[in-house]
């Protein structure tokens, strides 16, 4: 089978999914701005016509990629909506690597995207901000449920710890770096939540 035949067999149905999978791999390994649309098309593999039929601009592709991550369960925030875990454990789950054994270690994709699109008015930065605000709302709801007297302040402290730990884990290449922030989060929760008698 020739390379052209293999590529043509990879095209067709499922093009959008292949584009998103290829962009996720490329964005994770080399960054969003360093990844060109032609490279995504090659990696997918799809024609440039197919790529642009699904995503008119690179911004459209990046936002679709971030939305896919948000719904995939592969981000820090995903543990917060799990009904099968008690509220306190959901909060502490923020400090665990969302994808065990992932290599390379990645921090928060929303913070990464906001850093690569620093203009606060850009669509990508705005979407990243929405996700980080959603994260604090989810934590606020959980600490409120646990009986915290000042839920908004505690939630901000906890998400700041989680985001900081995720960023350091990525920079240092240590998947379990969150254990340090988890210990601090346990102290915060112990002081802020009512004691049971």
Describe this structure in words.
The chain has helices at residues 3-10, 15-30, 37-43, 48-54, 58-72, 87-92, 109-116, 123-145, 151-172, 178-192. Residues 1-11 have low confidence and may be disordered. The chain has ten helices and no strands. Helix content is 64%, strand content 0%. The longest helix has 23 residues, at 123-145.
Furnish the topology, listing elements before pairings.
Blueprint: H1 3-10, H2 15-30, H3 37-43, H4 48-54, H5 58-72, H6 87-92, H7 109-116, H8 123-145, H9 151-172, H10 178-192
Helix pairs in contact: 2-5, 5-8, 7-8, 8-9, 9-10
What's this, in brief?
This protein is mainly α and 197 residues long.
- Give the SSE order as H and E letters: HHHHHHHHHH
User: What is the average per-residue confidence, as pLDDT, rounded to a whole number?
Assistant: 89
Shape: elongated
Low-confidence stretches: 1-11
Strand content: under 5%
What does the main sheet amount to? none
What's the total helix number?
Answer: 10
Distance between the termini: 72 Å
Number of strands: 0
């Amino acid at each position: 089978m020739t390379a052209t035949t293999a590529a043509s067999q990879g095209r067709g149905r499922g093009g959008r999914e292949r584009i998103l999978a290829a962009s996720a791999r490329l964005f994770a390994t080399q960054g969003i701005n360093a990844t060109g649309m032609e490279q995504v098309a090659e990696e997918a593999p799809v024609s440039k016509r197919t790529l642009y039929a699904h995503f008119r601009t690179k911004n459209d592709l990046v936002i679709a990629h971030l939305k896919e991550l948000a719904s995939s369960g592969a981000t820090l925030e995903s543990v917060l909506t799990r009904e099968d875990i008690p509220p306190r454990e959901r909060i502490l789950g923020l400090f665990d690597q969302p994808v065990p054994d992932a290599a390379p270690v990645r921090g928060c994709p929303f913070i990464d995207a906001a850093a690569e699109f620093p203009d606060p008015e850009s669509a990508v930065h705005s979407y990243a901000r929405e996700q980080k605000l959603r994260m604090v709302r989810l934590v606020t709801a959980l600490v409120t449920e646990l009986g915290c007297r000042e839920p908004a302040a505690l939630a901000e402290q906890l998400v700041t710890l989680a985001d900081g730990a995720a960023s350091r884990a990525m920079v240092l290449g240590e998947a379990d770096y969150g254990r340090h922030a988890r210990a601090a989060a346990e102290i915060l929760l112990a002081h802020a939540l009512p004691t049971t008698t």
